[in-house]
Amino acid sequence: MRHVTLGMYQPGTSPFHRMPAGVKLVLLVACGVAIVVVRRWPWAVAAVAGLVVVAYLVAGLGLGFLVRQVRPVWVLLVFTAAMNLLARAWQQAWTVPVSLACLVALAALVTATTRTSDLVDVAVVVAGPARRFGVQPERVGLLLLLGLRCVPLVAGLVDGIREAQIARSGAFSLGAFAAPLVIAALREADVIGEALVARGIDD
């Protein structure tokens, strides 16, 4: 989708922008674990959602930015809610999707308030001790960089395929949507792979 900015740094001077990248990643992991633990209690899930909203306001990003980060996964959220409704898990029909949305929003908050180079540097440092086992920390950083950059790319593919489908048939069909998306994503992956090989980054 055109307005997706996950993985793209938004300049600012908020406390989140000034916080070290390593600290933010540790807090992200801790928040992820906490969300999984507390999702059984509706009041706790609602409190977490409220804290996420406050975090975006403190970061100076606004609620519109928050909505744009969660919008790409709306199909997954609706599907999760529907499955829980079919299983008659009424409480989980909203607590699980809201928990997932909070996780996506928090990950987007970290990438939006942290320069990509800082995130890559942290990944390289963390993977440093694994060098003795044959792991190349620089490649770990490269994988992180590619992952962050591919999120907007895939989101753009989703947007283009959805708009083309609606233009042709006047309606959106999830069944006819998956195959073109997979093919387009694999094609882009081949292009990226060939570019990396051409630059001597991979064998």
Mean pLDDT: 78
Give the ordered list of helices and strands: HHHHHHHHH
Q: What gap, in angstroms, lies between the N and C termini? A: 33 Å
Task: Give the C-alpha Rg.
Answer: 19 Å
Helicity range: over 70%
Would you report the number of β strands? 0
- Overall SS class: mainly alpha
Account of the 3D structure:
It is a single chain. The protein has 203 residues and is an all-alpha fold. It is built from 9 helices and no strands. The longest helix is centred in the C-terminal third of the chain and has 33 residues, at 137-169. Mean pLDDT is 78; it is low at 1-5.
Short description:
Helix content is 74%, strand content 0%. With 203 residues, the protein is mostly helical.
Key terms for this structure?
single chain, 203 residues, mainly alpha, 9 helices, 74% helix, 0% strand
Topology:
Elements: H1 15-18, H2 21-38, H3 42-58, H4 62-70, H5 74-86, H6 92-112, H7 116-127, H8 137-169, H9 175-198
